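User: For a benchmark we're assembling, each entry needs the component sequences followed by a predicted structure for the full assembly. Here are entry 17's components. Please fill in the structure.
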Amino acid sequence: NAGVTQTPKFQVLKTGQSMTLQCAQDMNHEYMSWYRQDPGMGLRLIHYSVGAGITDQGEVPNGYNVSRSTTEDFPLRLLSAAPSQTSVYFCASSPGLPNRYNEQFFGPGTRLTVL
Amino acid sequence: DQQVKQNSPSLSVQEGRISILNCDYTNSMFDYFLWYKKYPAEGPTFLISISSIKDKNEDGRFTVFLNKSAKHLSLHIVPSQPGDSAVYFCAGGGGSEKLVFGKGTKLTVNP
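Assistant: Structure for entry 17:
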């Protein structure tokens, strides 16, 4: 199993550009999520999905869109990038409830810089 | 409202000694907690978990203690090794699939 994969690993955007961060998992996990990690801020939840066709907002959803058309893929879209979105983005997946502990498996991250 | 707090941004210990990383929480609905370890340029990896009905869980050199009355948990690493140098995140969960993470503590183990 490849686990959770993310592409690209690095990206530089100009303000106002759009892009999609890709995330895929091959563990047949129902739950997938996107986090951003900023210095001194820990991991903050952007959006999450409990299954194909179902998405919801996390703690910091503004400026980001998601969709979940398949169990495997959960792309994150930036419609108009802003410097405040410079961050490291992590995708994670887990079997979801009713598993006892929702241990999440993380991808390697995408480092995004918005100029 | 910060539901999970890791008040120490960094911790430095000598190789072979004990490392104690602390975490406080405010959400009484959490019914399990997890610790993750993160190396630079990598994603976080799961380390150890504990249910709210237990007060201790041990896995090799890693032990997590939970004090529900104080809403406090701690991760003990004994003995500490240089390879343990990483950022450690505490997370709480319960009632939904979502996890709430603390801000992390950077552990440095000096040879």
